[in-house]
């Protein structure tokens, strides 16, 4: 961490020295950002550019541009690795990572880099930026930064820390950095507990909800930038991960109507799409897409080895050299997932490549060559199933939970209807909801999280044995870079 920080700051210093010499010949440009005397916060345009830069770093392929979703899917049970490529998550799939593994180091680095940018922005707005753009716009911008910081800390917890359910958050968590680092110095910091990190995440999301706008004005901006419903929706995921089901219900009720068709009646009019295919095809800006990472032009390509299509579709069903194909014993073996379900007919593709005949791949992201498919982070379908699960865990065979489950299933399979008579108890309903999540969010990075938040054993796959919660590989080890340069970090989180 410190090593990376030194490199970043060195770049700032070099740029500053050049700017100082140049200033002898001409005044400071109003369109060129300098790091001195609060210049990044000197104009409204510069401040807005910094907000957009926060999203750009969140979009990085090593983070939410693809890798987070991939790691949390292939770590679980629905995939078989084809390539053995350690650069493209074969070690994560095989439960064989260590402190120096590529994914362990790169994800930690990019997530904390994004956190530091958010911290620097929040600090700068408090010092000078708010006075430039005014109270209302400042609240919007700081809300976006706090949402992105919460998202980063949540993402780190899912890979490097024990689940909240293991000791009610008492286990070691992460270094909780809340002040921007802009100078080279000893930045050693001990880990906070899992509960303390979650407390900061929920505080950031509460602050974001209060500060974010009700809408960002266009379908595009409502998909790729945070608005009020984005923060609320993400809180339903966070509280579900913590097992605080009453709070899931409280948050979800803010943006889910009491009866079908379930929609958000305030803020952005979030709702399920009538056709699930529309969520994954251009323009990617549906009301179901609560938050997605965009890739619009060739200059924004996430890179082939980061793109979701590269892992699950383009290299398998079309051109060979696949990274992962669907585990025949995984979710596609579920007989209750009917062959006529739109999620099968649209997204499960049999290979046409001779070497891969008999294998099936995921076609949600099929923008082959350009890899400009948006990467989904959260959809309205998840909010509905989060609420359904929370209600079932509290109230058993709950009528609204069943209605929410039906809303998601019948969007793609109108021939299936769940009824109260079909569930012997609340546990049976919860299991049905969990399986619906398994189908609905295949490839989107929720499967491993769903196992871990309930301390479930990750099933065996191919030649990889099952991973029980007691197995050290249940979570990733801490990044070796952090262990080397943070003298207070301590040892393993297991």
TrEMBL record:
Q: Where in the cell is it found?
A: Cell outer membrane
Keywords of this entry: Cell outer membrane, Membrane, Signal
Query: Would the keyword Membrane turn up in this protein's UniProt record?
Result: yes
Instruction: Name the domain of life.
Output: Bacteria
Reply yes or no: does the keyword Membrane apply.
yes
Tell me the ranges covered by the RagB/SusD domain, including all copies.
353-453
Q: Which Pfam families match?
A: SusD-like_3, SusD_RagB
Q: Where does it mainly reside? A: membrane
Q: Where is the SusD-like N-terminal domain?
A: 50-240
**GO CC, one annotated term:** cell outer membrane
Q: Which family does it belong to?
A: Belongs to the SusD family.
Q: What is this protein called?
A: RagB/SusD family nutrient uptake outer membrane protein
Q: Tell me the organism.
A: Mucilaginibacter polytrichastri
């Amino acid at each position: 961490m410190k090593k990376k920080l030194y490199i970043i700051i060195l770049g700032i210093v070099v740029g500053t020295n050049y700017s100082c010499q140049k200033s002898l010949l001409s005044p400071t440009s109003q369109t060129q950002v300098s790091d001195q005397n609060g210049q990044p916060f000197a104009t409204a345009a510069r401040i807005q550019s910094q907000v957009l830069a926060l999203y750009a770093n969140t979009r990085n392929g090593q983070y939410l541009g693809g890798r987070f979703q991939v790691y949390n899917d292939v770590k679980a049970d629905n995939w078989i690795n084809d390539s053995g490529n350690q650069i493209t998550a074969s070690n994560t799939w095989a439960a064989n990572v260590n402190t120096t593994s590529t994914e362990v180091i790169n994800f930690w680095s990019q997530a904390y880099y994004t956190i530091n940018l958010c911290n620097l922005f929040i600090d700068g707005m408090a010092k000078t930026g708010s006075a430039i753009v005014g109270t209302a716009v400042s609240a919007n911008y700081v809300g976006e930064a706090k949402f992105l910081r919460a998202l980063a800390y949540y993402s780190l917890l899912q890979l490097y820390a024990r689940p909240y359910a293991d000791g009610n958050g008492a286990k070691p968590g992460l270094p909780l950095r809340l002040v921007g680092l802009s100078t080279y110095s000893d930045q050693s910091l001990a880990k906070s507990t899992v509960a303390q990190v979650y407390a900061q995440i929920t505080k950031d999301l509460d602050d974001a909800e209060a500060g974010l706008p009700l809408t960002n004005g266009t379908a595009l901006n409502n998909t790729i930038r945070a608005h009020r419903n984005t923060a609320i929706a993400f809180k339903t995921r966070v509280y579900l991960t913590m097992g605080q089901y009453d709070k899931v219900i409280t948050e979800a009720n803010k943006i889910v109507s009491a009866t079908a068709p379930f929609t958000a009646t305030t803020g952005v009019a979030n709702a399920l799409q009538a056709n699930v295919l529309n969520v994954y095809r251009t323009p990617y800006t549906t009301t179901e897409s609560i938050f997605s990472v965009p890739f619009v032009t060739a200059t924004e390509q996430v890179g082939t080895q980061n793109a979701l299509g590269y892992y699950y579709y383009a290299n398998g069903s079309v051109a060979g050299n696949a990274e992962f194909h669907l585990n025949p014993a995984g979710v596609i073996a579920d007989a209750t997932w009917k062959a006529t379900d739109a999620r099968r007919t649209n997204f499960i593709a049999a290979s046409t490549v001779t070497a891969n005949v008999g294998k099936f791949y995921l076609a949600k992201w099929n923008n082959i060559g350009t890899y400009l498919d948006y990467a989904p982070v959260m959809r309205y379908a998840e909010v509905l199933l989060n609420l359904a699960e929370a209600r079932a865990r509290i109230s058993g065979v709950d009528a609204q939970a069943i209605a929410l489950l039906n809303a998601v299933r019948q969007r793609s399979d109108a021939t299936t209807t769940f009824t109260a008579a079909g569930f012997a108890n609340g546990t049976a309903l919860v299991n049905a909801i969990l399986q619906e999540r398994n189908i609905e969010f295949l490839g989107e990075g929720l499967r491993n999280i769903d196992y871990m938040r309930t301390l479930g054993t990750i099933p065996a796959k191919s030649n990889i044995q099952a991973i029980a919660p007691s197995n050290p590989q249940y979570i990733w080890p801490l990044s070796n870079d952090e262990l080397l340069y943070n003298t207070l970090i301590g040892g393993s989180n297991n």
